[in-house]
Amino acid sequence: KEEWVCLGFFVQEEDTEEEPKLKYERLTNGVTEILQKDAASCMTVHDKFLALGTHFGKVYLLDIQGNVTQKFEISPVKINQISLDESGDHVGICSEDGKVQVFGLYTREGFHENFDCPIKVVALHPQFSKSNNKQFVTGGNKLLLYERNWLNRWKTSVLHEGEGNITNVKWRANLIAWANNVGVKIYDISSKQRITNVLRDNTNLRPDMYPCSLCWKDNTTLIIGWGSSVKICVVKERDPTEMRDLPSRYVEIVSAFETEFFISGLAPLADQLVTLYYVKDSSEHMEEEFRTRPRLDIIQSLPEGCEEISSDALTVRNFQENQCRDYRLEHSEGESLFYIISPKDIVVAKERDQDDHIDWLLEKKKYEEALMAAEISFRNIKRHDVQKIGMAYINHLVERGDYDAAARKCQKVLGKNMDLWENEVYRFKTIGQLKAISQYLPRGDLRLRPAIYEMILHEFLKTDYEGFATLIREWPGELYNNMAIVQAVNEHLKKDPTNSMLLTTLAELYTYDQRYDRALEIYLKLRHKDVYQLIHKHNLFSAIKDKIVLLMDFDKEMDKVVEELKDRPELLHVYLHKLFKRDHHKGQKYHERQISLYAEYDRPNLLPFLRESMHCPLEKALEICQQRHFVEETVFLLSRMGNCRRALQMIMEELADVDKAIEFAKEQDDRELWDDLISYSIDKPPFITGLLNNIGTHVDPILLIHRIKEGMEIPNLRDSLVKILQDYNLQILLREGCKKILVADSLSLLQRMHRTQKRGVRVDDTAQAFGVVVFHCRHMFHKECLPSPGNVPGIQYCNICSAKRRGPGSGILEMKK
């Protein structure tokens, strides 16, 4: 199993709360044995494998776990560089004694050459496997390009010389970038032109001790790191009008900045940059410089600087003995893996995934964020479980003493796991915090054992009567044994028989248990406001006959109240209004008086009263409303009394509200009423607009359109006509849909009838001897008892079923015929 470690292997620059961006692992297995006897000098990375060169002239092919798959004895001295093409089928190797070998890993073809000087670099064409791209470059004191011609011979060209040793080379697509003692050059292999020369900044540093780092971010972006300087260069196409004798491409430096330490390697990470630093401390009191751990930083490049995203100090083996040139940084583009190579250690850095993010949050005790992250990406996490993280969060809250928050999280974390719920309840009981978890227990379709709820109710009953009453009101009575709780409440009432809260709760328990007489007795004794609701809801009128004295003390009789308030009409209105709102029928004999009271003191509630009352005399109400010129109320009463035309006329003439008129016509659904409305509106353009917008689903709009006078200006006519067409289209669609449904239903019923009539009918053997006829309706008749076939010879029908369809007595008449 792959183990990625983040603590103990690296040290963050500062003890901050920032999360690391990368995780690290040592490359072990075969690499460990190699580096015990030898030292790494270079390495290159392919998506399929790794190629490691050593100081003793050996090249090892490794899998990504570090196991050796192949070994090549190249030279007795240091391997300087290894190059692979994109397919991973060919490899180029150069060594300190001047040997250069280019060969196929799976073929016999190859190139072998010995030079009289050390060859520092070699780079294959990225598409070297293709026959037309058999090219590679080598660099010692000059840069040579090798190309295989059509005669299968290698042709050599000098691309550059005279500026010292070539220290690095990177080939991407058609561009070759190399570094020498003076600077960095880029050569375009397609146009055979050198297109730039980027001079190095830190000329006081020895180029062999602080070599240049090159890295292609993409086919046109080159990142240069030299000393403490970083430059990001972009290769661009030159405008044809500006070419003259210039190359077709040019290089623009889009970002340049200085770093705090010396650069040993560079690699891209999306739009950011991974930088390997060589760090040394020098002090006035120290004769020699002190080498510290190398750093791997992620930085964000800016046009005139950079921003540090993260910084890790790596504890690689023998870092005290290493120099800047001993470190290298290679990366795998496919998986965002970064390899830090030093003589005695190889470290792999990888972007942290969601599991690592959750690990860090849990380590920092940020359980809320960890739980949220696990819930959001539960499909992608592999090492964590949402419920286990939630349980860890609950444990943390309990340890911290935040019991209410812990109980609240139980509802989300425990979900439908009843075993976990019961375990948590008993844990809260152990720590004396049953009250905290009580309000979050499941009480719907999923429930715990009744004993759990009873245990919590008993706990509240001992210490908190108010909380006990709240639970009884909120919890369904099916959750617990009602009789056991009633008995417990009665035991407490023996000690405190006048406790109103316990008595009220006991009444509610009796109600749940359908012992309404006991509940009613308690409510009347307490003069509780819910006594009338209990009586009406459960029809307990017979139960209060022997408790009439208590009821009279509880509330005054209605007639007596009305008699006492007859001299205070405004208060009488308030009383009758409340009575009406509670029960529309209870004070029905006072509804006629209430009309005048509403008209005088509370007109806004007059119309709702007229609508809801079934005992209000309409003629009296109409007279009062007409006297006071209450138009809306008069319109309602006229329509209720059947005089819809007069009601419509009042809306149009006195209210002048076309929307109300249209709404009124819709409610009545009377064709003559619509005609009256159209006639009244035909000379009023705003009314016509309102009609066009609303009558499409009730009246044929053509009737209205034909009656509009020519030349009349109607506001928003186009929008109204568009709406009519849309309404018509909608009606057509609805009709077609209904027709399809009707046809489908008819077919289904026909098939059902056909299947039913095809079924056989069981008849006794004796029936056959008496000449019995059996119909599909399962009625049986003797042949001589059947009526004559009628007009259609040979067709008989069941006399009973036919009589049911034609009405009472028709069967007897038929028999007489």
Compact summary:
Plays a role in vesicle-mediated protein trafficking to lysosomal compartments including the endocytic membrane transport pathways. By secondary structure, this protein is α+β, with helices and mostly antiparallel strands.
Secondary-structure topology with pairs:
Elements: E1 10-12, E2 22-26, H1 30-37, E3 40-45, E4 50-54, E5 58-62, E6 68-73, E7 79-84, E8 90-95, E9 99-104, E10 110-114, E11 121-124, E12 135-139, E13 142-148, E14 154-161, E15 168-172, E16 175-179, E17 183-188, E18 193-199, E19 213-216, E20 221-226, E21 229-237, E22 249-258, E23 262-269, E24 272-278, E25 280-281, E26 290-291, E27 295-302, E28 305-314, E29 328-332, E30 337-342, E31 345-351, H2 354-363, H3 367-376, H4 386-400, H5 403-413, H6 418-430, H7 434-438, H8 450-463, H9 465-474, H10 482-495, H11 500-512, H12 516-526, H13 531-538, H14 548-554, H15 558-564, H16 569-582, H17 591-601, H18 606-612, H19 618-627, H20 631-640, H21 644-655, H22 658-668, H23 671-681, H24 685-694, H25 701-706, H26 717-758, H27 765-769, E32 772-774, E33 780-782, H28 799-806, H29 810-816
Antiparallel strand pairs: 1-28, 2-31, 3-4, 4-5, 5-6, 7-8, 8-9, 9-10, 11-12, 12-13, 13-14, 15-16, 16-17, 17-18, 19-20, 20-21, 21-22, 23-24, 24-27, 25-26, 27-28, 29-30, 30-31, 32-33
Give the neighbour order of strands across the main sheet: 1-28-27-24-23
Helix content: 25-40%
- The average pLDDT score comes to 81
Number of strands: 33
Major β-sheet annotation: 5 strands, antiparallel
Shape: elongated
Low-confidence stretches: 1-8, 548-555
Strand percentage lies at 15-25%
Global Rg:
48 Å
- Tally of alpha and pi helices: 29
Structural class by sheet pairing and helices = alpha+beta
What is the terminal-to-terminal distance?
A: 99 Å
GO cellular component, one term: lysosomal membrane
Function: Plays a role in vesicle-mediated protein trafficking to lysosomal compartments including the endocytic membrane transport pathways.
Domain Vps41 C-terminal RING finger: 764-803
GO molecular function: zinc ion binding
